[in-house]
Amino acid sequence: MASRDAILRLPVALRQSVVTSRPSLASLAPSSPCSSSPRPYATETTHATPESSVNHDEVSHFNAMASDWWDPHGSSRLLHLMNPLRHQFIRRCLAPDGLDPDRKMRYLDIGCGGGIFAESAARMRNVESVTAIDPTPEVLAVAKKHRRTDPLLLEPGRLTYLQTSIEGLQTPSDKQYDVISLFEVIEHIQRPNPFLQSILKQLKPGGWLIGSTIARTPVSWFTTKFVAEDILRMVPRGTHDWNQYIQPQEMRDWARGQKELNTSDGVGWHVMGVVYVPGFGWKEVKGSEAWGNYFFAVKKREGAV
Amino acid sequence: MSSAATFKRLLALPPAVRRSFYSTAVSSSEPEIYDVVCVGGGPVGLSFVSALHSHHSTRHLRIALIDSQDLTAPHLDSPGGTYSNRCSSLTPAAVRFMKSIGVWEKIDQPRIQPYHAMDVWDGVSGSKIHFDQQQGAGLIDALAEMVPGNRFQASRRKYEAGEMVVATMCENRNLTGALLKRIEELKDERSSSTLNMLAKTKVDSIALGAEAADESSPDFSQWPILSTSSGQNFAARLLVGADGANSPVRRFADIPSPGWDYNQHGVVATLNLDRDLNASELRTAYQRFLPTGPVALLPLPGKKASLVWSTSPAHATALKALAPEEFTAAVNAAFRLMPVDINHMLSASSDSTPTSELSWREPATPPTSTGLPTNFPRIQSLQQGSLASFPLRLRHASTYTGHRVALIGDAAHTIHPLAGQGLNLGLADSEALAKQLVYGVEHGMDIGSSWCLDGYNSERWAKNNAVLGVVDKLEKIYSAGSGPVVWGRSAGVEVLERLGWVKGLISGAAAGRG
Lengths: 305, 514
Hints:
The structure holds two protein chains of two kinds.
Chain A: H1 2-8, H2 56-64, H3 77-94, E1 105-110, H4 116-123, E2 127-133, H5 137-147, E3 159-162, E4 177-183, H6 192-200, E5 203-214, H7 218-231, H8 248-256, E6 261-262, E7 269-277, E8 281-284, E9 293-300
Parallel strand pairs in A: 1-2, 1-4, 2-3, 4-5
Antiparallel strand pairs in A: 5-9, 6-9, 7-8, 7-9
Chain B: H1 3-12, H2 15-20, E1 32-39, H3 43-54, E2 63-66, E3 87-90, H4 92-100, E4 113-115, E5 117-122, E6 128-132, H5 139-144, H6 151-160, E7 167-171, H7 172-189, E8 195-198, E9 203-208, E10 224-228, E11 233-241, H8 248-252, E12 259-273, E13 284-290, E14 293-299, E15 304-311, H9 313-321, H10 324-336, H11 339-346, H12 354-361, H13 367-370, E16 379-382, E17 388-396, E18 401-402, E19 405-407, E20 413-414, H14 421-442, H15 450-468, H16 470-479, H17 483-490, H18 493-498, H19 500-513
Parallel strand pairs in B: 1-2, 1-11, 2-8, 5-13, 11-19
Antiparallel strand pairs in B: 3-7, 4-7, 5-6, 9-10, 10-11, 12-15, 12-16, 12-17, 13-14, 14-15, 17-20, 18-19
């Protein structure tokens, strides 16, 4: 049964970006497909580091793939296909607050890559502006070039690309973001705690941090490392470090440790497991977050600063 | 915000954009940017823009519809007067679509005619198939009545309430008029409508835009730019070809449209029958398969009926040359005489008129030998000026979408144009594309990109290809479980094979109910 599921599940596509600290001992840990040991550093508190979280090895990896971000049959195809689900998930999170058609929101997209999500968010009617950041200059060049194919996105202030790490992003307190997105990024972070905490500073009270990633299971090792990188070569080898994958429970445990976050089910915390079914695309599969790709969302309390 | 970040952000903005495209003073040579430019204002193109403008997610889209013809509601005669010879047999799915976008209530209702059954017979063997919406009526119906509260009785009530129609006959200009009225209404609902209807405007050329002047200007090199006879130019995020079988949009997108010409012409006419039926009576459509092609009589209100006779080009020419009363006799003969006699009647060497041929052949041809339905009406006269003919052909575009291009209706496919399915398929395309654009807008897609349009192509292309193809029709008829179809099947493949055209009609109607 498990192997059948594994075959049905498709590899997660490419990371949109890499925002990570310098390689640590964690990356040297033996890569075992058979054990799901707790991820090093995943939940422990570490000292926030003042330096940039950008890993230059990973940056050059994504430079090499920059050219085919927008190729409908390129290696980013699965990310494009996943993009509608991101909007559906965001809508689900925002729905209880009532979707006021006149309320325009400010988005921050971290690790925007070629701009797949950032462009789509900037076209939404309820979005005032999207700030999209990525440390890789070549993918940002791709993003800016592609933005020019749609004059709507060139309207002043609608979509702004910045080459920066999250630590380097200056945001005044009255310009915090309603939605901060972190799609297919967190699994590249070796020390998520300081990284996520610098994100929370940018989030407006009542705003949402929304992301997607992959659970660290034998299934995800088989599909995203073995099948996707070695067998089908759908994504370039070395795209993922399976040891850095993160469990939904680990995400939630981290969020519970942050007093400014609301983590009660369906109010301040959402999770949605998704599976790629060849020929049909990405589908929500309840419970699949435990072993594959999933979305997560956590809300900053209204009273928080 | 710190001054450094402010500066960075300002650097990221493209000032040239404001100058060239979002200023209020746009020079006449600059293309106006539209989200959707639809070329073609026939029923398919009009239904497409109505659907977009009716939906809250796509209402804000900037839409231009361009047609070389006038775009005002055509004049319709009073009931009992004349009827256009260009009618379509709208499936329940097409009617449902028209209702969903507020068009059906604008239809001139006394001029449409639903029909509830269809009698089809084979001119060679006399084999008959009767279709209606109570499949399995008769024995099953009788048995069902013994079981209180069963579903057959519910379906019978629906049938009696007039909901269970096979299809509804509607003049194309009646539908066009309703669509135009609905579009006017939608435009009036909002003070600043984003829908621009360009009547009597020709598209002079379609070409890709120019490379961007500099690094911060928009890049229109992959956008279709239309120049029109009015002097306006349009840049289309999505260019929709609803521009018919010889679609200039399809040519621009370089999409091949393979197919073949049937060596057949379709003869159409509006006829007067001997019986005046009132609106509440159940109506039947009739179709007979002759070796030269099918001949169909489709009911219009009162004593009117629409003729669709597919036949050889020589017979079509002969028919059009006949005097009105001779033509009337020829149509009566086409449904009543043996095929060999019909061929003789219309052959160039024949020295007798259809009237004389009918008068001495008919008494010698018992209805049981030809399969003539007992309730078949007699055609009394031809409505003056309603006789016309068209060559029949089949074309199917190899894809319905390209970058910033989508094809709907006859631009995408031409089938036996008089089967009535052409318009039904076109309306289904229009509904599917509008639905796909709603999805695209709600998910932040560039609606001209393949990420958005792929869904439309995959939904419609295979379906249309199936309707166009013979295999699917056979499959459908063989998967039917109703009495008459099973009976027909037992008579052998040979009979069913000759009924390909009607199977298309039926499977189309069945699909529309799914």
